[in-house]
Structures are given as structure tokens and as C-alpha cells.
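Final report, results section. Input specification for complex C-07:
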Amino acid sequence: MTAPAPLIDQFNRRISYLRLSVTDRCDLRCAYCMPERQTFLPRKDVLSLEELHKLALGFIDRGITKLRLTGGEPLVRRDMIELVKALGRKLGDGLEELTLTTNATRLAEFADDLREAGVRRINVSLDTLDRAAFARLARRDSLPQVLEGIAAAQAAGLTVKLNTVALKDLNQAEIPALVEWAHARAMDLTLIEVMPLGEVETDRFDHYLPLSEVRAALDARWTLSDSPHRTGGPARYADVAETGGRIGFITPLTNNFCEGCNRVRVTATGQMHPCLGGNEQVDLRAALRSADPDAALSTALDVAMKIKPLRHHFDISAPGGAPAVARHMSTTGG
Ligand code: SAM
Ligand code: SF4
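Structure output:
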């Protein structure tokens, strides 16, 4: 039998990285991400543990080597660790890296299990170290648990990278302090521009902060030099001479980061989005629940490769602040 063909899109980009959302639910309500009264998906629509596993194996068969589990908050899903353990068995057998993105509220509980299952690096989202500001931004007073989670992950031997959404007037002034805090604890920190995904109560444009502005402020403070470091994602890194650490910049709005895109995303209901910033969609749940799931899944992946767009169509200043894409980041998976 011949090996299944790798995933190559219509623009000849090799797709090797899957971000798989295991739930759209979350224990926080970050104001830029979702409204306070978010409507979550009915549980029956969400893929079962077995379906998530089968789906991931189908992708690995087609050459996906890096798998990031995300959400919503992946660690609020009850059987999440079972999935991590099952997928961990594919490490070294097609899969090169298994990782996750988490808000860290429940990380203290799961850090050892993650490490044992083969996870080595995780991304933790942290926008502020100020407890009151955190409670306002995430609408939950959970900073102490998050800090405990980060410490537990490091103690368990996981490499932690922080992700920080840069927000004008909200955490802008604190960014250098966050970087210093991270670097003092051997963590890289990546800054992200806020993206117009899904309706929220606030106008994101009010807090949109171009990273070019943040970079200029950091350049004035420290000696930054561009780094060749890459993690397979869209971040571009700079080394900071004074702190000895690295800062990543993810600039979907001010730069075109689509050229070398190697990623696709799947929601917790099995909808595949070949582009985070596009409305293209392929129903993998229907494929998984069909009479011949293996063949149907592989065909669906071929369809996705034909419709993955060249680039996203974000525009933060769209009239009325309307989101470019109706899905929230918590649905598509960060
Ligand atoms: N709950 C987990 C967490 O917060 O890390 C995983 C999912 S969350 C949707 C993934 C990442 O997306 C987080 O770093 C979050 O800050 C980011 N995010 C959410 N909404 C965003 C938006 N509209 N623009 C830019 N980043 C966003
Ligand atoms: Fe939850 Fe992550 Fe969205 Fe915050 S960014 S509300 S932690 S899914």
C-alpha cells in the first residue's frame, strides 16, 4: 500500500501543523475574546474523545507532525488528559510535537500528567500580572491560580512560553514589566495583536495596539536584535541583550504573516477552518460519522487543501467595528 499523500495546499504550502480545539467552553471571559454571556455549543455537537482521537490520527497519517490542543480552555474538558495520553503514544511515530495552549487556571492539577504523556512545551496566555487588572480583563479573579499553574508546569519540567495580547491603555504600560518577569523565570513571551474575531461587548478598535508601536517602545528601552529562532508558528522573535530572553511578535494585522502558513484549525465540533481569518470550512464531523470514515476524512482534507486561501482578510477598522470573521477565537481555537 502506498503512503497517504502529504497535505499541500493550492499555493504549494505544506501543511504540517494542526490546532485542534477540544472544547469551546472556558472558565474565563477575556473581554477581547468572548462576551460575558457567551452561548456555548450543545454538548451533543462536540466531538467525542474517540472522534477527536480518530481525527488527529487521520491528520498525522497525512503528514501533520505538530499538534496543538486548544479551546476554549482545553483543561476544562473532563477527558482531556485521556486524549493527551492517547496522542502522546504517536510521538516518535509520525508526531513530532504535542502541545497545548492554556489559560493555566487548572494547570497545577495537570502539569505532571501532561509531562508524563510526552508534552514538553506549552503556551500560557497571560495579559497582566496585576490581580485587579486581570479580574477586569478576564472577568474572573483567577490570577493566583494562573501563577500557581505556571510554577507547577515549570516544576514538572515543561517549557512555558507566555502569550500576551497587546491592548492599548489596558496592559500597554505593563508590557516591559511582563517581559522582565517572564525572562527572569526563563520564559519567552510572545506579543499578539488583537484580531477581529466574533462579536464582543467592547469595540476592539479602542484597544487595538499595533505591535510596531510596542516594538519601538521596547527598542528604546532595551537592545533588541532579530533572532532566527522559529517555533513553527507565525511569531518572529527578537533577543533582548539586557534580559537574556526572547520576545515574539505575532502581527496578523500590521504584517502579512500568511506567506509561510503551515497551519489548519479544527473546532470542537469537527469543522475544519483552513484559515483563522477566513470563512472557508469543511465538515470533518460528517466525514467521521459517515459509513467509511477513513476515506471520507482523507477526501475532506483534500477539499480543504483546495480552498485554503492565500491570506486572511482581517481589517480591525471595519465599519461599525464588525468582526471580519463571526467565529470567536474560542471556537476556532487559538
Ligand atoms: N483558553 C486558552 C488560552 O487562553 O490560552 C486557549 C484558547 S485562547 C482562544 C488562545 C489565544 O487566543 C489566547 O492567547 C488569547 O489571548 C488569544 N485570543 C483570543 N481572542 C483573541 C482575539 N480576538 N485576538 C487576538 N488573540 C485572541
Ligand atoms: Fe478563555 Fe482563552 Fe478566550 Fe480567555 S482567551 S476567554 S482564557 S478561551
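The chain has one domain: 17-332. The CA atoms of residues 85 and 117 lie 5 Å apart. This concludes the modelling results for the funded period.
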